[in-house]
Amino acid sequence: MDKGEISDTLGEIATLLELKGENPFKIRAYQSGQLALVTLEEDLGTLIEEDRLGDVKGIGKALTEKIATLFKDGPLPFLDDLRESVESGLVEMLDIPGLGAKKIKKLYDELGVDSIDRLAQVCSTGEAAQLPGFGAKSVEKIISGIKNREAYSKRHLWWDAQETARPILNGLRDLPQVVLAESAGSLRRKMETVGDLDFIAASDDPEPIMDWFVGMPEVSEVSGHGKTKSSVRFESGLQADLRIVPPDQFVFALHHFTGSKDHNIAMRSRALSKGFSLSEWGLRTENKEGMAVESIPDEKSLFKLLDLNFIPPELREGLGEIEASESGDLPKLVKTGDLKGVFHNHTHASDGANSIEEMTQAAQDLGWEYLGLADHSKASFQANGLDEARVEEQIEKISSLNATGAFDCHIFAGIECDILKDGSLDLADGTLSKLDYVVVSVHSSFSLSEDEMTQRLIKAIEHPSTTMVGHLTGRLLLRREPYLVNFEKVIDASIANGVIMEMNAHPRRLDMDWRHWRLAADKGLLTSVNPDAHNVSGFRYVEAGINACRKGWLNPESVFNTWPLDRVNLFFEKKKA
Ligand code: DGT
Ligand code: CA
Ligand code: CA
Ligand code: ZN
């Protein structure tokens, strides 16, 4: 295990002990060990090797051995027993926002709540609201948490879905009976979350393909096994449909099952207006002799038959794409290959896993011209955020690294500065103005009213050092709802102050949501696709961010980090002047 995983494990132990109502001192020992690892700057392996782990502040005697064992991936029977001894219903309840171990323990002791079903019950009967420390408002929050959890469990992050889908698609394409295969549905439209996978294959010999599909080792349940359609479920809960059609129907089936439903409805009426009838089976012209079915090689030809330019799957949401296609107004969509660098990334100075040098090397290996580093600021103490002195030290380090010419990739010194509750920034103006750029983000006080949150953000946007807004709504897809903000006001304030709105590319964020981008970019808002990388492999998340930009109809010009280095420099200089 690495440092981050061990720290998470210590946190898990503390929580489990709390659920069991163990000695508070013991619980605190694990909590302080967890924090000590997050803020640890020395190499953990070296500390263990030199037997100096016990000298680290916050790591007590009892923990050193357990940390060393976890580091070597050794067995920890104590943890296995602990996990075994806590009822699974109690652990599940931890997913519900507003419910920590302490409250869960109280619900269990006082009302015998040992499952989410029982929790919902005591919330609706009013019993929960009677408990000390609960009240009507917190019970309301729990009820909406239970509802969200149900909705969340039905969907999957696009990123996870594509990781499941990729080998299946390759497997299908490798089968001798398969002429063509494609994934369809929301996965192909690059929706941020996916309900189920949809595969379409072309073949005249479907049976062996279906046998292969339902027999894949990852399949945990077969819910349908037919000649034209089969459905399976994987361990993760994700389900997949495979439809097999004769080769001459492939394009129509692919288009139909890519959807969306609204796009399909609009396409069908477009077809009707051109004298065709469009369905998943084909495009037919109705005449006296019967039906004439068009035969076409690809989707592009399908659109062409309807006098339309090809509409990329990302845009097929029934949001005016057909009209734009007809009038030649579809955007030239940004691509991952257009990116020349990224700006929101963490190093091991805060809660990242890699050094400045390692991050820069990785960025350079991706062919990027520049890399922006933006570690956390001090208010994010749980992430070992930097104070003014450490920020200035990092600026020095970056500027001397740039001066050595060790890397072709230019490093920009930035920060992800916390926006405090009142909208002021977490670092002194004198320090902020020494940075190349400043990303401002909310990491606390999430439950302000829409008005308060909007004013808070606008105040931060108006700060003269602010360059970009980080993850505007703080949402964590399928985990945490966005906080309330007035998009129009925040977008207008950003444009007025020349501030860039990040597209946080982390697959769990994709924030600001693509649904707001078309209008915002038309008004002149710029974005930056920021992977929020916490290690070198986090850079790959730009793909998810680019998907979201494409769904927001963005062209490369609206995406700041497609700009070349000298133009970026000019932008920063102008902002500082
Ligand atoms: P998901 O799975 O919830 O993330 O979303 P999709 O879009 O993948 O939806 P899914 O799997 O139910 O169906 C795949 C596509 O099939 C959908 O995008 C459009 C098409 N489709 C499914 N049901 C209907 C329907 O009732 N009417 C029309 N026009 N198209 C449909
Ligand atoms: Ca689907
Ligand atoms: Ca489906
Ligand atoms: Zn952040």
Describe this structure in words.
The protein is α/β, with parallel strands linked by helices. The protein folds into three domains: 3-152, DNA polymerase, domain 1 (Orthogonal Bundle); 157-327, Beta Polymerase, domain 2; 336-576, Metal-dependent hydrolases (TIM Barrel, Alpha-Beta Barrel), CATH 3.20.20. Helix content is 44%, strand content 14%. A seven-stranded parallel beta sheet has the order 11-12-13-14-15-16-17. Strands 2-4-7-6-5 form a five-stranded mixed beta sheet, sandwiched between helices. Helix 1 (3-19) packs antiparallel against helix 2, helix 1 packs parallel to helix 7 and helix 8 runs antiparallel to helix 10. The radius of gyration is 27 Å and the shape is globular. The model has no long low-confidence stretch (mean pLDDT 95). Bound molecules: 2'-deoxyguanosine-5'-triphosphate (DGT), calcium ion (2 copies) and zinc ion.
What overall geometry do the principal axes of the alpha carbons give? globular
User: Which hetero ligands occur in this complex?
Assistant: 2'-deoxyguanosine-5'-triphosphate, calcium ion, zinc ion
Structural class assignment? alpha/beta
Report on the biggest sheet. Answer: 7 strands, parallel
| Residue-averaged pLDDT | 95
The CATH H-level homologous superfamily of the largest domain: Metal-dependent hydrolases
Level of helix content? Answer: 40-55%
Radius of gyration: 27 Å
Distance between the termini: 47 Å
Name of the top-level CATH class of the largest domain = Alpha Beta
The spatial strand order of the largest sheet comes to: 11-12-13-14-15-16-17
